Fold:
Amino acid sequence: VQLQASGGGLVQAGGSLRLSCVASGRASGRILSNNGMGWFRQAPGKEREFVAGVSWNGASTIDADSVKGRFTISRDRVKNTVYLQMSSLKPEDTAVYYCAASRTSYSSTDYSQYVYWGKGTLVTVSS
Structure:
């Protein structure tokens, strides 16, 4: 299974971006239909941190405190795509954003619970 995140770019503070994560390869449909998904980010010189997660059916989500009220995770099981809608962006949101598939039907804030990782997409927020 390969995960590919896209949608990053340069945006001014206060702006919005929507990231997408698409799965491809064998079992990709099963993974995107049955597994929890998460978004993580890593800023330069910092550790990777959890951003948001969504359960297999989209009914349950988790948001990091730093993004609550500003970011929304969702998924489209028909399109095998997971989204991260980011609004009211701040310079401190600047990072490489990664999507990942959980080993279970639910997401987790613990990165060790994720078995598939995509290449990241860079989000840069200017002040």
Observations:
- The two ends are 37 Å apart (CA to CA).
- The first strand starts at residue 2 and ends at 6.
